Amino acid sequence: LQFREHVFIQFLGLDKVPSPQKFQPVPYIMKKIFQDQEAAATTGASQDLCYVKELGVPGSVLRLLPDQGFFLYSENFSQASSCLQKLLYFNLSAIKDKEQLTMARLGLDLGPNTYYNLGPELELALSLVQEPPVWGRFIPKPGKMFVLQSVPWPQGVLYFNLLDVAKDWHDNHQKNLGLLLEMLVKGDRDTGVNFQLEDICARLRRSLHASLLLVTLNPEQCPTSSRKRR
Amino acid sequence: AAIPAPYASCKNLCHRHQLFINFRDLGWHKWIIAPKGFMANYCHGDCPFSMTTSLNSSNYAFMQALMHVVDPAIPQAVCIPTKLSPISMLYQDNDDNVILRHYEDMVVDECGCG
Questions:
Q1: Given a cut of 70, is residue A187 above it in pLDDT?
Q2: Are the C-beta atoms of B101 and B81 separated by less than 8 Å?
Q3: Does the distance separating the beta carbons of B95 and A94 come in below 8 Å?
Q4: What ipTM goes with this model?
């Protein structure tokens, strides 16, 4: 069985039988797509296995990559109200070179979207890390900033389109040095409630969860001619 | 005149048989999130000449079955899937990525002599 199992594992596009320590949470959208496909298979409805209608993009494989980065601590925070800095890193090595990326959506879950956890307004900045970390320097040098926005808190999940960045990383693995996420507290002047900065930041650090949803198209399974025909 | 073919009882004729694959039986439930298994089915049964005209067969299976009657050294036509469908699988790989993928031709829907 071992040998035949290996053949099936290769057929699945894996190099060995996975042995995850614990199951990652499956996002709602992946469950929905899976259930829609199961329902279509049960009713015998024809399915376009090269198009993800729930996301509106061509694709045959969806992957949810967990963030493998870490929080950064440095005494001289750039600004007094700086709340957290995190290096976000996503390992794209599972994507085969022949696969074409059609979607890369970063999800930043800031915690439950309930008003029991009222917090101050936040400012969120996302930058590309374009230089490898230098020994002794805690904070990687941020490169091009591509998101800077105010975020009322609590906010639930924020989504950002990273398709161009992910394509660049996929084409040139060395460029994938991750992203620098910085969050500042914009003060409590609007709410009039006194917030303890440290408590807020500790709560934010606890609840922050980042993931990258990728959709790829395998040209061998989904020749572009069929795409044009559709 | 039709050549008298040996009588084959219905249950031995080529048709689809149910086969449910339970991933737990293979130890794959530790990394496949969904489904827990799927109805794969399989094809099995005889393809005698007399049935090739009705058993969803191909032309060459018809000719092969005919030639088998004339010369038994020529093997009979065989019972194979004639309609297959895909399944979707949600699983986790060794980098803790959650992957949703479809796999073509995993479920046997129909069988015939080929």
A1: no
A2: no
A3: yes
A4: 0.83
